[in-house]
Fold this sequence. Notes:
By secondary structure, the chain is an alpha/beta fold.
Amino acid sequence: xxxxxxxxxxxxxxxxxxxxxAQRLARDGATVYLGARNMERAEARAAELNEEGCxxxxxxxxASKRETYESMVEEVVAAEGRVDVLxxxxxxxxxQKDKDIKTTEYDExxxxxxxxxxxxxxxxxxxxxxxxxxxxxxxxxxxxxxxIRPDIxxxxxxxxxxxxxxxxxxxxxxxxxxxxxxxxxLPGMTATExxxxxxxxxxxxxFLKHIPIKRMGKPxxxxxxxxxxxxxxxxxxxxxxxxVSGGFGMPTPIFGDMAEMDAKR
Length: 265
């Protein structure tokens, strides 16, 4: 129970990586608030975890309504007196519109960058004064390997995640004096419902050729990295950008072709 006694907020926490993070933190002993727009779903997820003996509550947060970042934090502080951990999990992209520099419309680019950056900036800005008053805390940003490895598509999403990586380091630098740590976890291709449902078997096979571990990540594996940064085990770790992608992009660019050739020998 490495997070026993801690109070945590996880944004976009009713499914996928966000839900996995909330589950892990709650099972590690934290009181967890599920930031969500769909409160009915958040209440259902909270009830499921509470049946296990966890302590989980829903809290309203709509990324399209900026004032709800502050109201989310204030509601949790009013109930618990503190926030020790903030997991900024929200992220958005429309692959049908977010393509390359030649075809992506400016309004779509700005919308994606704005929402993704605002989700980290506003939530962090709201929670930092409370963490400072309480003697410290941990902010964990869910970024993406797309923020460090350029792709042929999703220019807005990649740009926003690259900015979040840098924002992570800035927060870590500027808030260290208040004993507030800030780190980022960068998932690779992760087997969430949203990802798995949109991948053709052909693309999946092609992509997996370039992952040394040869499989998609699991949401709970991303959550394990988040739990480490959230815990006191990482008390001397801040400003770090942790790639959790099975080694994607690490070896030579022709790794996938070479591995395939080797397998056929």
